[in-house]
Amino acid sequence: MAELTKNATEREPILQVRNLVKHFPLTQGILFKKQVGAVKAVDGVSFDLYQGETLGIVGESGCGKSTVAKLLMNLERATAGEVFYKGQDISKLSGRALKAVRRNIQMVFQDPYTSLNPRMTVGDIIGEPYEIHPEVAPKGSRRQKVQELLDVVGLNPEYINRYPHQFSGGQRQRIGIARGLALQPEIIICDEPVSALDVSVQAQVINLMEKLQDEFNLSYLFIAHDLSIVRHISDRVGVMYLGKMAEIGTDAEIYEHPTHPYTQALLSAVPVPDPDAREGRERIILTGDVPSPANPPSGCRFRTRCWKAEEKCSVEEPLLAIPERFKGLQTLAAHESACHFAEEKAILAV
Amino acid sequence: MPRDNISKQDEGGGVTTSEILSVAETGGGSAVPLLEVDNLQVEFKTRDGVAKAVNGVSYSVSAGETLAVLGESGSGKSVTAQAIMGILDSPPGRVSGGEVRFHGKDILKMSDEERRKLRGNKMAMIFQDALSSLNPVYSVGDQLGEMFRVHRGASKKDAKLKAIELMDRVKIPAAKARVGDYPHQFSGGMRQRIMIAMALALEPDLIIADEPTTALDVTVQAQVMDLLAELQREMNMGLILITHDLGVVADVADKIAVMYAGRIVETAPVHEIYKRPSHPYTRGLLDSIPRLDQKGQELYAIKGLPPNLLRIPAGCAFSPRCPKAQDICRTEIPVLHPVTEQDGTELPGRGSACHFWKEQIHG
Amino acid sequence: MSELATSPAIGDENPVSSASAPAEPRPKQLSQWGEIRHRFVQNKLAVVGLFIIAALFLTAAFGEMLAPFDPAAQDLENTLASPNGTHWMGTDALGRDMFSRLIAGTRVAMFVGLASIFFAVLIGVALGAIAGYFAGFADTLVMRIADVFLAFPLMIGAVVIILVTGRGITPVIISLAIFSWATVSRLLRSSILSVREMDYVHAAKALGASGWRIVRTHILPNSMTAVLVYATFNVGTTIVGVAALSFLGAGVPVDVPEWGNMLAAGQGFIGVNDYLWVFPSLFVVVTVLGFAFVGDGLRDALDPKLR
């Protein structure tokens, strides 16, 4: 049944991101600053998010995945590009119009220790959305709403008057999720929501997020560096490298039929908690570090660490598209990949 | 059933972990292990009372061997390491019991001076955060070279040559050119390599690595872990790898000790623990991590929270979170039992601190 | 070892059990102020400091009732009397009762100290908040001005101002305030800069909160702690400043019973009538310590993470 509804709504993108760009200027000078360059944190990223699905975004630090989250939330202004929410470009909105859109797109933050104001009670934190959007809940009903939310995320509603420091990391993350749910948004952007938590608590929070998705038909953009968790929770996955999308597809396409060398290296590097599964795997150990986003390589950004790189890669930038060789084929390898020499390579023993 | 000699007192009797663990690696061949931790106890004085961070931990490591100590925050895995290294914050921390034998000698009884000579020279530590472990105002060459100048009395020039050699050894490209660079000029992975170089500088017998790759990206993590394992083999060092990541453990460890609330709850050679865990906590951990190679159903989640060390539950500390807990679990602290096959065949190196280990492993 | 320091873990992570666990005993609920008070009184020195400050306030308020003599009344028959049953702290060169003068000095010290800190904080918070919140050019401008004031030695600056305006209580307050606001600004600015990057501020923005709301409910409450603690500490320091200015002859007029003036008068009698400078110094030292103890206690008590 869940499958059916999913399919029915899946063709409806709720969020369309087109050529999103964010350059942070690098400046010099004490009193009068002049720009001497730019960190190209996000450099032309496009993707769609469908109703009720989870799109995972993976990548290493500095790939721009967290900046994408901030751009979608309008916490940073995009340098260029558009973000369409149900067909409306929200990337240039401000004031009242932006505030209205915010009701529908909310965020869960990474660090449960800095994402809650230490001087506010849990009730005030979860109730703040109602203070800002008073039309959602009349004053008298707010306390009850907050208690309902606490219950929904699995916390005792009696904790409403406590302060964040009285809770553990996992519980704080639940509070953050409750705050994100308060306005009944359609989309929740999750920026590394479990990476700061202990292993045994991670599973609790992941399960909670899945339960809430089913209950409220939420769309998640799930940003994380942990490929295992992203696979677990995502319907589709995008792999980012140095401000660009390297490859995007369904979870089976990306994890079982990766065609971009970076995805392949990333997958092969993940330690699997099973020494036997380990033995059958080929390991690709990349050399070197991620180049600086202030000065990315020409052509393909991955070429400096890629074992397949040729002359063409340094001249011509590969576009994110279904590779020629797989076009029209009924194979899971036929998904968008930004590589001149895209080819399948099974990394995980399936 | 050895259940009658289980008492509420702090694991006095029974088989110690180090006995169980040392059988595994040597097959009974070699003499004294490199490091033996025996019933170690560490306390922290806090405003609200005394927190028992380590509650009778025993393990051992031999030359050329890797022991992984696995646990969540607050399990006592790092505190144990700090106690071994002698870098415990004290006060408020205090070793309140037990022995740590290094080459057969109890180092807890040594003078501060003797222990300082041991550090860096014979045992070294690698930390999670390389940036804050390196001094930002000295070049990495100076910091690496200082090891030789202080401990070996090398001249400035020799020290610099040695530093370059070390940087080469940990595969830092263009070592000669970069020896004068400062820590912030290196990437995270390179800084961790420098930390490793520093730890290895004086060719210690024992390395303790506390979450050495946690702060790094996956692709860099693999590089650094490989390097560490390779150097360890080459130099035949003992390695204690402290981590929360079951994946990292699977890659490099020979044997594993799982810690919970200041105690070791399970020990095993690394291959076996994944297939047949003998403690419900280990089982729970394994089931609660999503798999990269399989798209699973709902994750198993261990309920509840790790205990507050000021108020460790009576009996088995895991019992409030354990799906299989019985009355006995809430009253009697389980000691580490040697784990055997159903027919009684010994499983070398395996131990479980669960009253119902038989059911867990065979049931 | 932060895990050790965390508060009693509350309830269960398990959704099912925590939602349906009304039987669980509820620990005593404390309001935020209750908790701060609780932490404050645990610091013994802070409580001592609080008593000192309370005593100073009472002395300042009810000085006339406490003083056995009129602080200005001269008794030329009885000059330079050592401490005795009538004059507990002796008399000065004009036969005025030292104890009564010190009590009267408390009022001057407290008034000038608190007033100048008040104005310093007022200017400092306004400018620091502008610098921290608006960043960019406003920040650069305010901070460079602050640098100028910080670079100027307080004593010399204050002396210059008072030489121009003439001695008096108001010039002292103004000159001390002018030369201490810069530190307040810097403190507030730097803590605003760090608070601004906290995720709870981002979260509020993501909810659509207005700039004013963010400043009022998120940024200021979390960045004022440092200023509050600094201000408390510095009431003591400022009182020393007042005394120092008077001692240098650039403070309040000589005829006002003020600790610095008394010290200045006593300096000619060092080694002869030591009580003339010992008692005023004692008042200054105890006052400074009182405010320092309270400041210290406040810092610990106001930090919500510290438990």
Automatic annotation (TrEMBL), chain A:
Instruction: Give this protein's Gene Ontology molecular function annotations.
Output: ATP binding
User: What is a single Pfam family found in this protein's UniProt entry?
Assistant: oligo_HPY
Which CDD domains does this entry report, sorted A to Z?
Answer: ABC_NikE_OppD_transporters (cd03257)
Listed A to Z, the keywords are: ATP-binding, Nucleotide-binding, Transport
Q: Which SUPFAM superfamilies match?
A: P-loop containing nucleoside triphosphate hydrolases
Write out the similarity annotation. Belongs to the ABC transporter superfamily.
Q: What is this protein called?
A: Oligopeptide transport system ATP-binding protein
Q: What is the lineage of its organism?
A: Bacteria, Bacillati, Actinomycetota, Actinomycetes, Kitasatosporales
From TrEMBL, chain C:
Region entry Disordered: which residue ranges? 1-28
On the tree of life, the source organism's domain of life is Bacteria
Instruction: Cite the InterPro entries for this sequence.
Output: BP-dependent_transpt_permease, MetI-like, MetI-like_sf, OppC_N
Gene3D superfamilies assigned to the protein according to its UniProt record, in alphabetical order: MetI-like (1.10.3720.10)
Start and end residues of each ABC transmembrane type-1 domain:
106-295
Q: What keywords are annotated for this sequence in UniProt?
A: Cell membrane, Membrane, Transmembrane, Transmembrane helix, Transport
The question of whether Transport is a record keyword is answered with yes
List the protein's name.
Peptide/nickel transport system permease protein
- Species of origin: Streptomyces avidinii
